[in-house]
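Hey team,

Filing this mostly as a record. A colleague (T.K.) asked me to run one chain through the structure pipeline before their review meeting, and I want the input and output archived in the tracker in case anyone asks later how it was produced. No errors, nothing strange. Just documentation.

Input sequence:
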Amino acid sequence: MADLFSGGGGYSRGFEEAGFKVLTAVDNSPPAAKTFKANFPHTSLIAEDIKEVTSKTIKSFSGSSPGDVDVVIASPPCEPFTSANPFRLRDPLDRLYSDPVGVLFLHAIRLIGELKPKVFVIENVPGIMEDPIDRHIKLELRRVGYESVYFNILKAEEHGTPSERVRIFVSNIELKPPKSPGPTVWEALRDLPPPGSQYPANHDYPQEPPRRHRGRLARMRWGEALVTFKGADGSSHPNYIKLNPHRRAPTVMGSSRLIHPYEPRLLTVREQARLMGFPDHHIFLGSREAQYDMVGEAVPPPLARAIAVFIEGVLRELGEF
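Output structure:
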């Protein structure tokens, strides 16, 4: 299988835990490429701009060719489509066809057409379901040979993840993975040693929040946010949220910082990774900001694993696994 826009490897982690082997991954972000290779040394990583990558590129790196890749997973950048982005283009189709980041979604579709996998799954935010974006995504996928296209709405917290996350998975089969509720914040964090311990990695003391807010940390109530910001549609989005230990965490994003439920400090990268369902042996490289970004931009491994197990069942029925 192949992973396009592989990032820090959350999507691949879940698929490999389900028994798949990721042959090829594509991501040209230096921290993400280094992180992915450190966690998946057996995978051929193509650290190039996906606009320049073709099925021939993938074959030259890994020996794969059209027909050899049963599954393609992809997670194109969501910034052009999310309502949390105050700079999102007003015209929905411009987000897909004119935004230089949004067009990367089309390159994922192009590569899927070239590789011709039996199953593909493209992850993104609910904003891609806004009409007419969804209709044009279907048109583009039909153009490369996939008549059946499904927009599957899945919630990470219903598939073993300790944080809430609603995402759309566009695929050529309807995805119905069995549900398994995720643990609470404290169930996910309580066995971690204090920050700065030798193990696990990425558990160093985090930076402090903005100086003007530091005095409020100890007085905050569970669920309270230090700041809010406006999204593209005028909606308010909280940040620096103090976690309720008895509930699942709110959505972990690259730009989000979360406050420990019992200590007046921000969470470490490892703690936020725990809330996304990453195992402690999965490490993150690069700057501290890059590490937070990779965690927050990932497909939660438990959700990815649930999708992979479902796909495995479909392929077994077809005699392809």
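Quick notes for T.K.: Residues 301-317 form the longest helix (17 residues). The mean pLDDT is 93.
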